[in-house]
Description:
Blueprint: H1 3-13, H2 16-24, H3 40-46, H4 50-57, H5 62-71, H6 79-88, H7 92-103, H8 109-117, H9 122-136, H10 146-159, H11 165-181, H12 186-196, E1 199-203, E2 206-211, H13 213-222
Antiparallel strand pairs: 1-2
Helix pairs in contact: 4-5, 5-7, 6-7, 7-9, 8-9, 9-11, 10-12, 11-12, 11-13
Amino acid sequence: MNFESVMQELEALGKERLKKMYMSNGAHEPLFGVATGAMKPMAKKIKIDQPLAEQLYATGNYDAMYFAGIIADAKSMTEADFERWIDGAYFYMLSDYVVAVTLAETDIAQEVADKWIASGDELRMSAGWSCYCWLLGSRPDVQFEESKIARMLDMVKETIHESPERTKSSMNNFVYTTAVSYVALHDKAVLTAQAIGPVEMKRDNKKPAILLAADNIQKAVDKNQLGFKRKYVRC
């Protein structure tokens, strides 16, 4: 499939209901409103195609950008490529579920994520913390430096309530993911979640969300999910 046929297929798959839902979460035109599951048949045909992914991502169309992440050749992408992609990620569903997910499949993931966390830019910070969630939730524990993850938990405890709104969500999810997927620091993550307590995240045109990492961790414990690792990062 080439660029034109993919765009035509995405448009045909679009649903007005999903388009409205995506827009309520921060997406803007152009977009079609395609369910992620509906993209799978195309993804199976194309598999991996980085040049096509770049064409799709450059459109600024949310659905095309999302699909670009599915077919991207992540391991061929450089830090400069990811900087370009995060520059184009104008809301959290792109920064956290496209760019961060794609970055999580690379060898430079932690290096780039660390820079984004330290950037002071809301969506870069959110993508950086989200990338660690994808990493911790899929890679063996031995690939992480325990003292580094522990310092990151301390950083969350000290800064989450003053952090940018979307970053709060990703930091909160980092605490949860560490508790569930990085068993060596489960206890520290639980204590961190208890220390930060409820986190209020303000949202445009919506009521604030109250984030409760401690409650979600306990639910995972009750379901015997400790040590969970997903087989694939990308769908």
